[in-house]
Design a protein that fits this description.
68% of the residues lie in helices and 0% in strands. The protein has 265 residues and is an all-alpha fold.
């Protein structure tokens, strides 16, 4: 059993944000894109991350974008804030993944895909709330933490996966009495993210519906997005698909709308 203290201790290892990054986050919250870009340019690692992220094929830019001011201008306040949170997550990413077959590039691809598709969903629903938009960044962060926790008991995890059809979320719960979505909530608290972010992610488990109608509905959309994304061949091969136990009854009322938006035939 991995104690809650050990989980908390690991999450506390999330690197403290440098001053330039803190200023960037602050200015984005104030919707000051120009000032945010100036601050971001002072952090060479952050600038390099933003350039690499937005030039991935999924963003669809024909020409390479290398200027941070231009990147923030193209993305707008909400998506720029998402990108910066994704960078904060990348600071925690392991140099070598042991359980999941991932590397830096494939993990960035996952971040980018979830962020873009979540933005599509929120635009479809006419939602502009920043807390809601940033909720999606918590899931990749919790995957990193889960990787570290699984590696504490790697042989046990591999044995359980080989002899039983147990999803990874159930194994994680047995190891530390927390699931993927609980870990998201702890990270949200560390980063002082809005309460809505954690509530939506918890609802997206499909097992913890919210009494708040809007939160619950968004949880259904996120549940479908996670299952849709992690069911792609590259993420099945990485071992991530085993995290989500699809709850068809939970999302049935919005499935057709989701399939149409994602152009699922």
């Amino acid at each position: 059993m991995i104690t809650r203290e050990k989980v908390d201790a690991y999450i506390q290892k999330i690197p403290p944000t440098p001053q330039a990054l803190q200023q960037t986050v602050l200015y984005l919250k104030q919707e000051e894109l120009t000032k945010a870009a100036r601050s971001a340019q002072k952090d060479l690692a952050l600038s390099a991350y933003l350039i690499e992220l937005v030039n991935k094929p999924i963003f669809g830019f024909r020409n390479k974008v290398e200027d941070v001011s231009q990147i923030f201008g193209i993305l707008g306040v909400e998506r720029s804030q998402q990108a910066v949170y994704n960078y904060m997550i990348s600071l925690l990413s392991p140099a070598k993944w042991q359980l999941f077959t991932l590397n830096r590039s494939s993990f960035y691809d996952l971040q980018a895909e979830l962020s873009i598709k979540w933005q599509m969903i929120l635009e479809h629903l006419n939602i502009t709330d920043k807390d809601i938009q940033n909720a999606i960044t918590l899931l990749p962060a919790s995957i990193i933490v889960s990787e570290a926790l699984f590696c504490e008991k790697l042989d046990d995890v591999k044995l359980l996966r080989s002899v039983n059809e147990i999803d990874l979320n159930t194994i994680l719960k047995r190891l530390c009495n927390l699931d993927l979505f609980d870990i998201c909530q702890i990270i949200a608290s560390k980063w002082n993210m809005g309460e809505k972010s954690a509530q939506i992610v918890q609802a997206s488990s499909g097992l913890k519906p919210s009494e708040d109608e809007q939160i619950n509905r968004l949880g259904k959309w996120m549940h479908l997005l996670l299952f849709f994304t992690l069911s792609k061949p590259e993420y099945i091969n990485a071992g991530l698909n085993d995290f989500i136990d699809f709850q068809i009854e939970y999302v049935q009322e919005i499935y057709d709308d989701f399939a149409k938006l994602m152009e699922i035939s």
